Amino acid sequence: MKPRTLFEKIWDEHVIHEEPGKPSLLYIDLHLIHEVTSPQAFEGLRLAGRKVRRPDLTFATMDHNVPTKDRFNITDPISRQQMETLTKNCAEFGIPLADLHSPDQGIVHVIGPELGLTHPGKTIVCGDSHTSTHGAFGALAFGIGTSEVEHVLATQCLQQSKPKTLEVHVKGELAPGVTAKDLILAIIAKFGTDFATGYVIEYTGDAIKKLTMEERMTVCNMSIEAGARAGLIAPDETTFAYLKGRRYAPQGEDFLAAVEKWKQLVTDPGASYDHRVEIDASEIAPQVTWGTSPGMGTDITGVVPDPESFPTPAQRKAAKDALAYMGLTPGTPMSSIKIDRVFIGSCTNGRIEDLRKAAAVAKGRKVAPHVQAMVVPGSQSVKERAEQEGLDKIFIEAGFEWRESGCSMCLAMNPDVLKPGERCASTSNRNFEGRQGRDGRTHLVSPEMAAAAAIAGHFVDVREWLRETTTV
Amino acid sequence: MEPFVIHKGIAAPLDRVNVDTDAIIPKQFLKRIERTGFGQFLFYEWRFTPEGKPIDTFVLNLPRYAGSTILLARNNFGCGSSREHAPWALLDYGFRAIIAPSFADIFYNNCFKNGILPIKLSEEQVQELFERTEKYEGYQLTIDLNEQVVSDEYGLSYSFEVDEYRRYCLLNGLDDIGITLQYEDKIAAYEAKRGLLSR
Fold it and tell me: According to the model, what pLDDT value does residue B174 have?
């Protein structure tokens, strides 16, 4: 048999129907739902008199609109209506829902893996671009629009044109203090925000194999910021160990059988990708973005670039517009940029390991007086675990706010919003204009860098702090 | 869905790369539970001051582009969030086609589901169209999906590529779900083969 890539194996397994000149009909194993992109899909079903074909392969939660403080007191009537609509729709169509009262509630891309719903080899979709997160398990996972949400609800299938494959090979090893977040930000800064458009990325190489599941999720999560349809990492012992014993993972004998099957989900020797790029992990420094696109980033040791240094007129204009919006001057050292707010959380960096790493930096230190910093666990279960480990106390003693789970200030559809002109060190995934609030200024960083910035009041090279900590 | 065959209209140039769906429709307007009514919020933070007054310099507020139905854009248009509210807002505002050198994947796909035609032309061709909107007041383009041609009244004519199946669906305003449901027996057979029986 012809050698195949990991992507091709999953794709082939799920194609139900193919015809030349038409998109393939792809079966979907898991459909995740949230309150923002689903109401119009359910309305469409009702208007057409259609049912949800497989409520048992569908799972819903509420995350985007959820207040992270006083969460049952939803003061925005439209937010409340959107959440009530999801509750009503799930009840009407028989879809399991982790609502605000459920211990399972959380950001959809945090709870899927946590509950063991995400498995290697599955096709997973959700009306949310960061569905790419689940690719960390070797699942083909991608975001869809609301029309497609309706399509999957009605048919459990999607019409899909076959994407091309792109290998992002990461050789070497990340240095201490350099994280998975820095790796993906560096990849996007190097190759651009649309270098992977039309492709499914498979991340390969020693640096990737050494990553934990949480770190792999951070990398795959931001594949969409590189333009990719999806990001994939081949499952291995790290993956299997993570899934073992989780509620919706196969149990006992079934788990062993599943692992044997999952082990086949690797790119065969001799299989080829449509395109390949390479990056050396050992050369990557902690990253900070300076602009309004995730690719506008640089090393913490670097400076705000001069727009005139970019090669094309369009790039020069984009950089100039970005610096005007961000209120930055070319040549300013990144480490001298003062911040007002810090947000640690989101589907990129709101998992238990992220909070542990941020807490290790915050421990025994104090948030700078002019900074408002908050930590928002990605799910109720992450929150509970963190509290068992005493992380909440570390954060609170250091002067961080400790919140309930939700998307929070990643997209500011809830009360967590930047005020105009406020500058934020954020562990989220998008630094677009207005993303965290109108005229808010977002700098994307890792949880360690965010925690360090909260304490220093400006960006700092967290590697220096880690060296101090280890020598003490 | 309204079919798209031939469309003629005023072209408005949005001179920015990487226009994201947060800019197209900011998050505070995503809370509606209907598909309609988003046009008033299109490009809100570029179009209006925090007090809700129109910003005179923004392209869609310039009188010469009033009533425009074709949007000219730059690379990677529609990147970011998967929100279909972005094409809903563009359509509700009146746009039927968007011309750019490249589009983000999910947005591109979402356009076809809503009767909007996204057209990819080369950077040079798009640049030429930008310049013509400057040069000619009320500059109009005609888009013929049957012939796959964009043309103007000054002799310009660019052909464009579009996936044959998407073209067919857009020309006929076809509903994807109806098409897929014709394969119900195949879907059921696949579920049986994989042991994916309903609980």
Answer: 87
**pLDDT tens, position by position, B14-72:** 999 999 999 999 988 998 889 999 999 999 999 999 999 999 999 999 999 999 999 99
Polymer length in residues for chain B: 199
For β-strands B6-13 and B140-144, DSSP reports them as: antiparallel
Question: Is the pLDDT confidence value at A193 over 90?
Answer: yes
Average pLDDT over residues B133-162: 97
Q: Which residues of B touch A432 (CB under 8 A)?
A: 20, 22-23, 80
Q: What is the DSSP letter of A246?
A: -
Tell me the C-alpha distance between A89 and A443, whole Å. 37
8 Å CB contact between A426 and A345: no
Assign 3-class secondary structure to B20-55: EHHHHCCHHHCCCCCCCCCHHHCCHHHHECCCCCEC
Q: What three-state secondary structure class fits A324? A: helix
A117: left (phi over 0), alpha (psi -120 to 50) or beta: alpha
Residue A402 β-bridge partners:
A375
Cα(B40)–Cα(B20) distance, integer angstroms: 18
Which tokens hold the place of B197?
């029986």
Euclidean distance between CA atoms A299 and A301, whole angstroms: 5
Both tokens of A364, joined, read 């025994």
Q: Return the CA Rg of chain B.
A: 19
Question: Least CB-CB distance to B177: which of A29, A155, A420?
Answer: A155
**From B17, B80, B199, residue closest to A129, measured CB to CB:** B80
- Torsions phi, psi for A75 (to 5 deg): -80, -25
Comparing alpha-carbon positions, the chain B residue that sits nearest to A321 is B16
Q: What is the ipTM of this complex?
A: 0.91
- In SS3 terms, A127-193 reads as CCHHHHHHHHHCCEEEECCHHHHHHHHHHCEEEECCCEEEEEEEECCCCCCCCHHHHHHHHHHHHCC
Q: Is the dihedral of CA A210, A211, A213, A216 positive or negative?
A: negative
C-beta separation of A60 from A395 below 8 A: no
Which candidate, A162, A233, A223, places its Cα nearest to that of A193? A223
Split at pLDDT 50, 70, 90, the class of B94 is: very high
Q: Where are the alpha helices (DSSP H) in chain B?
A: 21-24, 44-47, 85-93, 105-112, 123-135, 164-172, 176-181, 184-194
pLDDT at A468 over 80: no
- The single-letter DSSP state of residue A267 is P
Residue A26 contacts by C-beta under 8 Å, 6 or more apart in sequence? A11, A14, A15, A16, A123, A157, A158, A159, A160
Q: Which of residues 117-156 of B touch A (CB under 8 A)?
A: none
Give, in order, the Cα–Cα distances in Å from A92 to each of A43, A87, A286: 12, 9, 48
